[in-house]
Structure formats: C-alpha cells, structure tokens
C-alpha cells in the first residue's frame, strides 16, 4: 500500500539520484550516469517524473550535435518509461562565470549571458513538457557587503524576472515561475533568503500572478525556521507553485537527506498540511543518497522518500480520524456563541459592543490547554502504538 502511483506525483531531479557522492572533502563514490540512465532508474523505482537543470541534461560546452543526441536519448527514455518532465530550471551557479552571481552580478555581460542561458533553457523545458520553471539563486549573494549594494541587486533581480516573464508571454508558453529561497551556501549570504522575503519581492514584479514559490525543507531549516509555517504562508498567498522535499537538521549546512530521515515529526506535519489543503502540485524530492551507497542504495533512497511520504500520508488520515485527538482539538478550538457577532467583521456597532464586553481575564488565563496530551498522542501515533 506504500508503493508509488502516478497520481501521487512523486518527482526527482537528475541531480538527485544522479548525485555521484562528491563532497567538498571527498572524491566521487559512484560513477556518473547519463540522463537517459537516470530516467530508467527512476522508472524502475516508480517515480512519476524527472526534473533537471539545463546542464544536468546537456553539458555547458556541448555542441549542437552533442546536444541533439543527448536530447533524443533523453526523450526516448521518457517515452520508454512514461516519466514526465513537470519542472525545469537553469544552472546559474556552477560555472566560474557566475562566481559573483547571475542576475545580480556586477558585470552587465554576466547578467546578459544569464538571461540568454535561461531563455534557451526555457525553450527546451517547454518542449519537454515543463509547466513550472524554478529559479534558485545559489550565487545571488555576497561574502562581503562592500562588494554589492543590496538595492542594486534587488533591482537587477527584478528586471531579470520581468524580462523573462515577458519572454514567456511573448512566446505563448504555458509556464509559471517558482522562486526558491535559501539563506546561505554557497554564498556567505544569499539575497531573498526565506519564503517571507520572496513573497514580499514577488509583489513588486510586473507580472506577480506568474511568479510563485518553490520552498525547500532544508533551506528553511538551515535558518532554524519552521517549514510548515513557511509553506502555509505561501499557500495562503496562492504562491505554492512547487515544493522541494528532503530533510535537514536545524542550523547545519545543506544536508539534503532522504525525506523524513532526520526530523520525522516535522515531516509528518508537512505531509498532513499538503494533503489536508489538497495541494495538486508535484511532490519533488530534492535530496541525495548517502555517499556510502552504490546505485542499489540510491534506489533504496528514492523508494524511501516516496514510501515515507505515503506512510506519513496514512498517519495524517489516522490523525484526522482519531476520536481522542479530534476531541482534544474540538475542545481547544471550541467556539463561543456569545462572540459570533465578531464574524461579520468591523462595524461601528460591533466595535462599540466589543468595547463594552466584560472579560474574565484571570479566569481565561487560568484555563489549561491540553497541548502536552495532544502532542503525546501525535508522537504515539507516529510510533505506531495508536
């Protein structure tokens, strides 16, 4: 019952299952797979789709013939496995040309090249079926604030997105943009570091309706923030266009662990939220297998991400149906009919009536709230004893 099905919309990036186990202190532990081989691996484990950066698929120095051959093989693998390409993105961080950023670089030629690279990547992404295009500004930041005026950086980022929105409109593409915040790494500080920053920035764009968010568990946890609260705010704003699921201890470097492998209770409430609100987008796993694994281990990693999500989905259903838990929630959230008049919003009459109310402040403050009981029941449900 925990096997993935197409309707679950589980996706992985080429860079995730294709990660070769290199880290800043060690050489690769796995041989590189071709994009077509990665697609076939994902087909074997039951994923719905595969996402990619432009240079995950086609090396940055490939000529036209090489690019065409790689694309043909990739499309054939998609056809053979039935996998979709729901999302694409551009690598604007790996090549040395982007060492000072892409859209926010101080060099006008770098900014122009970044726009060119994205437009070409958008064309291919649309050709492959992508309907969401993600922007992660991994190099859009500073190590020293002497190097860059943040107002200039924000302006340049805005101008780039406005330009690219117009490009999508002019070409009649069915494509939305999703911005991915991160506080730091690889830059010392990255502009627009959290969901809240991005939400505010989107409202300054020429086409805010085209631009939403791609929040990632690890990126909010790096800053010690609550990912559930972040995605709730994005959802409330109508901006949860895509999501990156993985796991991460608070305050660490970007660990990108298998979903649910480190902070299980946090993962549970994320799954419960997505299922309760009826999120219809992809469940994308932006995570990496441990460096210890061969490709059989990578398959276990991919299956594990999907199985954990489905197990937590079932736990969320049990939470919603558990009589004791629901009775506690009903008690905690009990309505007070005497205050129903406030539901109509402000009026002078309502304000005067409220000002005249006599509240038993001491008595209200003495009322206990059974949160310890509720949390323990949640833990017991997750541990499988309820």
Write the topology of this structure:
Layout: E1 10-13, H1 14-17, H2 35-45, E2 49-53, H3 54-57, H4 64-81, E3 87-89, H5 108-128, E4 132-136, E5 141-142, H6 150-170, E6 176-180, E7 189-190, H7 195-202, E8 211-213, H8 217-222, H9 227-236, E9 244-245, H10 264-277, E10 283-285, H11 295-321, H12 323-332, H13 348-355, H14 361-366, H15 371-382
Helix pairs in contact: 2-4, 5-6, 9-10, 10-11, 12-15
List keywords for this structure.
2 domains, globular, 10 strands, 15 helices, TIM Barrel, alpha/beta, 8-stranded parallel beta sheet, two-stranded antiparallel sheet, 386 residues, single chain
CATH architecture term of the largest domain: Alpha-Beta Barrel
State the fourth-level CATH superfamily of the largest domain. Divalent-metal-dependent TIM barrel enzymes
Calculate the mean pLDDT score and round it. 98
Strand content: 5-15%
> Outline, from the CA principal axes?
globular
CATH class identity of the largest domain: Alpha Beta
Helix proportion of residues, in percent? 40-55%
CATH fold node name of the largest domain: TIM Barrel
* Class inferred from helices and paired strands: alpha/beta
Number of strands: 10
Largest sheet properties: 8 strands, parallel
């Amino acid at each position: 019952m925990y096997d993935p099905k197409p309707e679950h919309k589980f996706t992985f990036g080429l860079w995730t299952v294709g990660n070769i186990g290199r880290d800043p202190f060690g050489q690769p532990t796995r041989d590189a797979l071709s994009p077509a081989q990665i697609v076939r691996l994902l087909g074997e484990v039951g994923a719905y789709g595969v996402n990619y950066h432009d240079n995950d698929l086609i090396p940055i120095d490939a000529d036209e013939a090489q690019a065409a051959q790689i694309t043909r093989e990739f499309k054939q693998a998609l056809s053979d496995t039935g996998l979709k390409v729901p999302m694409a993105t551009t690598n604007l961080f790996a090549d040395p040309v982007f060492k000072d950023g892409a859209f926010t670089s101080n060099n006008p030629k770098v900014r122009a090249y970044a726009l060119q690279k994205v437009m070409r990547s958008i064309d291919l992404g649309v050709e492959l079926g992508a309907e969401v295009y993600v922007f992660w500004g991994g190099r859009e930041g500073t190590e020293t604030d002497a190097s860059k005026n943040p107002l200039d950086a924000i302006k340049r980022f805005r101008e780039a997105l406005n330009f690219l929105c117009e490009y999508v409109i002019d070409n009649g593409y069915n494509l939305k943009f999703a911005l991915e915040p991160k506080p730091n790494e690889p830059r010392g500080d990255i502009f627009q570091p959290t969901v809240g920053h991005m939400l505010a920035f989107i409202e300054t764009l020429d086409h805010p309706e085209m631009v939403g968010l791609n929040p990632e568990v690890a990126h909010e946890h790096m800053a010690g923030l609550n990912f559930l609260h972040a995605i709730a705010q994005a959802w409330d704003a109508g901006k949860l266009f895509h999501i990156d699921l993985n796991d991460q201890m608070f305050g660490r470097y970007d660990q990108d662990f298998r979903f649910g492998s480190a902070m299980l209770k946090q993962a549970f409430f994320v799954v419960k939220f997505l299922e309760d609100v009826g999120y219809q987008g992809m469940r994308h796993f932006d995570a990496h297998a441990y460096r210890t694994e061969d490709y059989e281990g990578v398959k276990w990693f991919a299956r594990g991400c999907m199985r954990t999500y489905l197990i937590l989905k079932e736990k969320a259903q049990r939470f919603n149906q558990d009589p004791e838990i629901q009775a506690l929630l009903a008690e905690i959230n009990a309505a007070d009919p005497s205050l129903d008049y406030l539901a109509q919003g402000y009026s002078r009459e309502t304000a005067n009536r409220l000002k005249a109310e006599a509240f038993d402040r001491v008595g209200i403050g003495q009322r206990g709230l059974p949160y310890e009981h509720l949390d323990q029941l949640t833990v017991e449900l997750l541990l499988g004893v309820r």
